Amino acid sequence: MIKKVILLINKLSKNPTPDELDVLDQAGAVESSLNxxxxxxxxxxxxxxxxxxxxxxxxxxxxxxxxxVESLNNxxxxxxxxxxxxxxxxxxxxGNPSDALFLTTQKPLAKKILAGKNIPTPAWFNxxxxxxxxxxxxxxxxxxxxxxxxxxxxxxxxPGSDPGILEKFRGKWGDHFFVEEFIEGREFNISVVGGxxxxxxxxxxEILFKDFPEGKPTIVGYAAKxxxxxxxYRNTVRTFEFPxxxxxxxxxxxxxxxxxxxxxxxxxxxxxxxxxxxxNRPYVLEINANxxxxxxxxxxxxxxxxxxxxxxxxxxxxxxx
Length: 321
Fold this sequence. Notes:
Elements: E1 5-10, H1 18-36, E2 41-46, H2 51-59, E3 64-67, H3 81-89, H4 98-105, H5 107-116, E4 124-126, E5 138-143, E6 157-159, H6 166-173, E7 177-181, E8 186-193, E9 200-201, E10 205-209, H7 222-226, H8 231-235, E11 236-239, H9 247-263, E12 269-276, E13 282-289, H10 298-305, H11 310-319
Parallel strand pairs: 1-2, 1-3
Antiparallel strand pairs: 4-7, 5-6, 5-7, 8-9, 8-10, 8-12, 10-11, 12-13
Helix pairs in contact: 1-11
């Protein structure tokens, strides 16, 4: 029986951006479910002073941690630090273990693991590696350690005939970026939740790019996720409806989600993002360990579409420690 839950939330910056503020919506949703489950809870905001975390759990030795930390000091690359600390203290913690968070957050490293496990992912190269771009292909530049589409907009997509654009991103990110082949086609977000019988793939979702003009990249960039006043936000929509002809593809996506779960030692809850090319071949773009679970998130709606209440999902996450 769970006696108490301490929600760990990354401390916000003085002028938080919409992607930072979203963690408060997640916390509110989790707290509502904890109330339904009649589990006492409190919030603890976390920064680089990890002594506050140590002290709080020493004071509450029977508490478990619900880990909602998405960054430390606004650095998403440090997301694995808090669960690593909790593991060293033997404090039960929801979601993914520190090794899974480290491997999935370091995007080029994650792609190497995917390729090593024969899980399809777009071809890529690191910023500090020698490379040759194919002038006939399109590419996309991504930061190596950020989530929530931070740093992603139309300028990140470029033709292989224009390699000079990479110097702009080198000036912005140094060597902390990578380039991958842009897969023209469909985009899917598949949510997975742990449980007593192993991981369960929830109802699949596809992202539709409505009325995008010719030449505009079909990507889920920062504006599409966070800026409600933009064309991208209004015209990038989620659907859970599929024709029967898509069933073989959806089955393949489910299998790949299980492969990713095993390859990265995942736990708790995950979202896997895919692109599917015009030949119906799927590619894993990235694995989002501990994805957003706010009420407007894809994970939340996939759970509802799968026949669960959000409180049932929180109960499963609490039991998959």
